[in-house]
């Protein structure tokens, strides 16, 4: 297939083009070029395109840029909508907060229109800048893999078909077509880290450290990341078991693993149990593993990690669920639904905790750590324990997990 931006787009959408496709367009050259390239694609393959712009409410020019995109879309016969961010509390890093808000708003817009895939206009230049920024933070393999051309988050598949295409090439396409775009003045503001990195790249260019080279680094690291993920997945399959909502692994096998595979197994287990979208920092996880080697239990990311005999256990920490209560039928702690006959007695769901465990004198016969049971859901009538299915006291109730065992292995593969 001949090379070029148009074919780069097609490679990411074929052989099965989506029936509907959302496009995020800010009015800048990158997203405007993506809009035109996808319009060409849609004319051939019949994909329905819808366009969204985000007005963060931070610049007076933003409304004009959204109006520019609306006019552009009207000329192409495409539906367009502007969504607005009004929730910034002036706390935290502005660019990071705006980025997260942008994804939330676009995802909500797409779900409301039954759009499963949204295309973004990130380019090779963006990829290079991201690699350099993460390099400055001491990122590992995953961090230096930078942006992926396809990922799923918030129920939406996010597609970046232009990561191998430079901004200059895209602007040349627009010039040849006689299409204009908007320049965001914040892209030249040296107060922002990304702008500083962009300026640094211009200085590094004579050394061969340019967008192409850093893009190749990202590609190489993504291959290494995928290999590590796959090895961690295979290792989890061979040594990890799910028991009462906790992950149990053979300690002797675990402690002989390479540090990176051991870290990935632990991160995958904690992410699956806590539901946190972001993994704990590498340094903290490696420190946790070292503590385990000394026989010391530790907590991280809402999880408890401990050793019992020859087993390593990863389970829900009790403190985050200590005061969590729910009604019968609710999903408790994002993970469990208790099913049974409620009758006319007022019941609620809460953690088993130490008080519940006192009412189960035979719990030690289960062969699991006390902490595993403390954080499991139980049915209560006031302070009286009615059922604790995961602790062996069913009394006509059972606990149905919202995420099955396979979700754990998938978590290892994706972290």
Structure, explained:
This protein is α+β, with helices and mostly antiparallel strands and 415 residues long. The radius of gyration is 26 Å and the shape is globular. The chain contains 15 helices and 17 strands. A hairpin with a 2-residue loop joins strand 15 and strand 16. Strands 3-2-1-4-6-5 form a 6-stranded mixed beta sheet, with helices on both faces. Strands 7-8-11-10-9 form a 5-stranded antiparallel beta sheet. It has a 4-stranded antiparallel beta sheet with strand order 12-14-15-16, with no helix packed on it. The model has no long low-confidence stretch (mean pLDDT 91). It has 3 domains: 5-220, Rossmann fold (3-Layer(aba) Sandwich); 226-317 and 406-414, Chorismate Mutase Domain, subunit A (Up-down Bundle), CATH 1.20.59; 319-403, no CATH class. The longest helix has 29 residues, at 211-239. Helix content is 44%, strand content 18%.
Note the topology.
Layout (H helix, E strand, L loop, with lengths): L4 H9 L6 E5 L4 H17 L2 E8 L5 H16 L3 E5 L9 H19 L4 E3 L4 H13 L4 H4 L5 E4 L2 E4 L7 H11 L15 H12 L6 H29 E4 L2 E5 H5 L3 H16 L7 H12 L4 E3 L2 E6 L2 E6 L8 E2 L9 E4 L8 E4 L1 H6 L11 H5 L2 E5 L2 E4 L10 E4 L3 H10 L1
Parallel strand pairs: 1-2, 1-4, 2-3, 4-6
Antiparallel strand pairs: 5-6, 7-8, 8-11, 9-10, 10-11, 12-14, 13-17, 14-15, 15-16
Helix pairs in contact: 1-2, 2-7, 5-8, 5-9, 9-11, 9-15, 11-12, 11-15
């Amino acid at each position: 297939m001949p090379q070029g931006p148009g074919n780069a787009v097609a490679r990411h959408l074929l052989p099965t083009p989506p029936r509907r496709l959302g496009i995020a367009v800010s009015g800048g050259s990158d997203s405007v070029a993506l809009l035109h390239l996808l319009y060409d694609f849609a004319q051939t393959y019949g994909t329905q395109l819808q366009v969204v712009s985000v007005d963060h409410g931070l610049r007076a020019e933003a409304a004009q840029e959204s109006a520019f995109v609306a006019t552009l879309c009207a000329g192409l016969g495409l539906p367009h909508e502007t969504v607005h961010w009004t929730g910034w509390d002036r706390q935290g890093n502005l660019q990071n907060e705006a980025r997260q808000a942008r994804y939330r708003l676009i995802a909500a817009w797409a779900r409301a229109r039954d759009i499963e895939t949204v295309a973004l206009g990130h380019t090779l230049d963006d990829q290079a800048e991201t690699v350099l920024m993460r390099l400055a933070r001491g990122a590992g393999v995953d961090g230096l893999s930078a942006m992926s051309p396809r990922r799923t988050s918030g129920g939406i598949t996010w597609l970046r078909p232009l990561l191998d295409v430079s901004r200059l090439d895209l602007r040349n396409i627009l010039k040849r077509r006689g299409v204009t775009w908007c320049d965001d003045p914040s892209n030249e503001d040296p107060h922002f880290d990304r702008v500083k990195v962009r300026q640094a790249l211009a200085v590094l260019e004579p050394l061969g450290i340019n967008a192409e080279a850093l893009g190749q680094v990202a590609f190489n690291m993504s291959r290494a990341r995928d290999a590590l993920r796959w090895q961690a997945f295979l290792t989890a399959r061979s040594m990890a078991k799910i028991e009462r909502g906790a992950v149990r692994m053979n300690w002797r096998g675990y402690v002989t693993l390479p540090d990176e595979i051991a870290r990935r197994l632990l991160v995958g287990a904690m992410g699956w149990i806590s539901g946190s979208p972001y993994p704990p920092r590498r340094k903290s996880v490696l420190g946790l593993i070292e503590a385990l080697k000394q026989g010391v239990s530790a907590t991280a990311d809402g999880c408890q990690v401990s050793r019992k005999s020859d087993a390593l256990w990863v389970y829900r920490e009790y403190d985050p669920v200590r005061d969590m209560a729910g009604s019968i039928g609710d999903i408790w702690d994002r993970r469990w639904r208790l099913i049974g006959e409620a009758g006319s007695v007022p019941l609620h769901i809460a953690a088993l905790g130490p008080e519940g465990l006192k009412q189960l004198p035979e719990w030690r016969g289960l062969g699991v750590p006390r902490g595993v049971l403390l954080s499991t859901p139980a049915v209560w009538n006031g302070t009286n324990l009615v059922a604790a299915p995961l602790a062996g006291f069913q009394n006509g109730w059972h606990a149905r997990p919202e995420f099955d065992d396979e979700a754990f292995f998938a978590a290892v593969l994706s972290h």
